[in-house]
Inverse folding.
């Protein structure tokens, strides 16, 4: 069985992450799939997907501050839109995540949530969710 | 349904990316799969896979220049082949990408292409493509 | 067909990788799946999954030394547990890997192994393995 859905998002800052775990779980609920794998892919080139801690918001603050210092907006970049840093961060963090599904639930660790990572907001964004299984 | 294919590539520089979107789409066309997920995995340890912008070639120039400054070839690395930087970049960028398939087409954003990332060329390279779906 | 398994690990240092290729292959053997895709996902937020060289252990030494210098433990991080570096490295390296399966075997390059990457050990750890195919 295959079930697909598109998640629509709106980011409100240049760099932030947005928890999409609930939306992804709802796609699994709607699919009727009990066992399989769920893939979430970002449909943009200046944003990414990751899984990280959902308890302390300081983890996000540290994550985006460190990425900004590692890959700053640099006037020496050639790409004329001024967002080469966002493109580079997207490829470093990665465009998609895969999570096992068992008993109709995402198999995530206690502290894990699925995040859409905005590196060039604020913007309207989309990601695709596909669940394969039985 | 499952369909597999191997993509064979030749890189001509030490660091560059090669657009494989067309080859991956042709694997989907050959598979007869209309809905599912396509996985592309690099079969080497000094190269990677990513998704990034297909419009302005300066994005690639900025990406590889920044990675070279973050992870330079450093004589202090222990690995005797002198390509530890390539191994490290491979794990940072990631070895595989996953893209949803709908109506027999890769679900990619307007500006997205799938790239094989060479970090230790020129070399002959391979990646595996597997499409799961119905 | 879908087959799932959990891999249980124990890390003995703060930062190291642990080869799980044999355990993943055994999950495929047990599944009876001959062709498909295998997904391995780390169930923690201070560890990751990657694929890298299995021949020279100096590759691991260089990898972890470079990551430590790129993302050091920094007293200016806000997250009070003192392991923001581990959370950041986890998202940079990525939480999951996908490998094609053909003729009941992982499709890996000659030098590739699958590694669980510990960034905040020593700890007891888990990752989920799911194989989809026929």
């Amino acid at each position: 069985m295959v079930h697909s859905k598109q998640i629509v998002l709106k980011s409100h800052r240049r760099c932030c992450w947005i928890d999409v775990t609930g939306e992804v779980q709802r796609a699994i609920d709607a699919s009727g799939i009990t066992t399989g794998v769920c893939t979430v892919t970002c449909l943009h080139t200046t944003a990414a997907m990751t899984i990280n801690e959902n308890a302390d918001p300081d983890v996000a603050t540290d994550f985006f501050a460190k990425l900004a210092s590692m890959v700053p907006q640099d006037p020496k970049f050639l790409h004329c839109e001024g967002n080469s840093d966002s493109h580079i961060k997207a490829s470093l963090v990665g465009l998609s995540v895969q999570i096992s599904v068992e008993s109709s639930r995402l198999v995530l660790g206690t502290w894990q949530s699925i995040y859409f990572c905005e590196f060039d907001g604020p913007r309207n964004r989309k990601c695709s969710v596909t669940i394969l299984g039985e």
